[in-house]
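ERR on first pass: missing label on line 2. Operator R.T. fixed the label and resubmitted. Corrected input:
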Amino acid sequence: MGLFKKRIQEQNTLFVRIWKTIVVVFLAIYCISLLVPLIWMIFTSLKDEVSYTIDNFGFPKTMIFSNYSDVLTKYLYVEQNGFRYGLDVLFTNSLILSFGFATWGVANILFVAYVISRYNFIGKKFLYNLGLILMVLPIVGTLPATFKMYRIFGIYDNMLMLILTSSTAPFSGMWFLIFYNSFLTIPKDFTEAAEIDGAGYYRIMFQIVMPMIIPVAAVLYVLNFISNWNNYGVCLYWLPSYPNIPYGMYVFQMGATAGSGGAGMTLIMAGFTCVMLPTVLLYIASQKIMNSNFVVGGIKM
Amino acid sequence: MTQKLKNNLKKHLFVYSILIYPLIMFAVFWVGINFNSVIMAFQYYDKMGNVTGFAGFNNFIEFFKNLAAKSADITIRTGVINSIRTFCIGLIGYPISVIVAYCLYKKVLFYKVYRFIVMIPQIVSGFVLTLVFHKFVENALPSIMNVIFNLEDFPNLLGDARYTYGTSLFFSIWSGLAGTILLFTSSLNNIDVSIIESARLDGANFFQEMWFICVPLIGGIIGTGFITNISSLFTAEGPLVAFWEFGAPPEVMNIGYYFTQQVMRNKDNFTGYPMLAAMGLVFTAVTVPLVYLVKGIINKVVPEV
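pass 2 clean. output:
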């Protein structure tokens, strides 16, 4: 019996080893496949057009760093409605859009989650349940109606209006639930003590509770900012007169491909590297926040 | 007025002062837009977007005619088939992600290196990754295949109609896998160590630990992801806009992209919008019961979904 058990154990160990080897090989192939296009992008961005034509995937023999300055100063622009929007305009629009959408979106979710989680009022349960339903309610094909209403309300091609109306259901979604649960974990003693000391509702919210939730909010803010920084769709669909950097890059690579059969590939890749850089830097800079365990109200989450 | 009543009034004033703006936004831009979409499905529009008459069910009839037509508008039919096909094939990502995440959790060889690389698509913008993939497949891949495998006539996988759908599907699974692996790995890392240890003491082996302990404990996350995927069955566009803007070849068409393409191509001509709204209602009517049916089934296994 003991021998039989030992054999089964040995077989299991062998099977686990084979299994792990298969997964490791799969992971290695997958990781290489993720790296290769990005390495190719950086190599290509450092080549000149002639060496790219001769060898379009090898290591650059001489590194041409001027591709980066060339693409930023000469090629990254958008011509729309008779106007030419240069890099300065694209950068400003990118900043305003990322900052605006991230700030407005996070603030809305944060405030709504705060009142729903910490106060009893008429309609509280309804709002919470409605949020849960909306999360899995698959509404298909509202784009025509959205497009029509955005034109009627003057939101189409209006940056400020689009930002102000972007948060349509802040009581729904994963981040609402995260904030909701985070607020619930903050002991009521904190706010009750402030109330006894005469603090008003706004003061309690902004000076007592919100500072405790900053680490969680900062993570959402960084992710939201990065996602909006990379969002070319918002200009493609809704803000044709306010092009941002990703949209400029999108237009540039489309035009370069259509016009010259890939002749501008080194510049396109230099452009991609430049577009990618701010988000990578922001991610690295915010690593401490992103990887930290959130501490809310003295409780480690 | 008593002090208690005053305080209660103040509290309600505070709560509704916070909620008023989000509620107005919800009423106008969620309820209003959806209501408008339903109404639109039963109307005729002129080019400028003015209502020209009551259409009854004609927009729905037109949509079904297009769906059934063999030659008139095959893009809708291809879109439906591709949306369902993409969803079904995309399901293979779940078991792969769970297995890989479990092995990373079990600290396989070089697990730290893999975890870092898998994080790259989350750091690098999705937009850059999509476009670099596009350029790489079109320009570098044929040369690489020629040099390494001596394949001189390696096709342009995103330019040859035989491979475009497969390549865009591959991209969706390939780029999405990293996110689910990371999500499942971090969920596994949150499992209480004592549960794993007691399972080991009871003699659970590598696979039993995975199947009977870890998978059920992260079942909520897996189930939620699955339901979210079903609810986006007819809204997911994939990488088509990034690859081809609004001119994707018909063989890669899906319903999410079809809506975007039709609206963006007809920004100044609203006549086709009512048919699109009718189409949206039909797909919503199909997806809503499906989502709740699947949610009900999953809830029986994993109650926390």
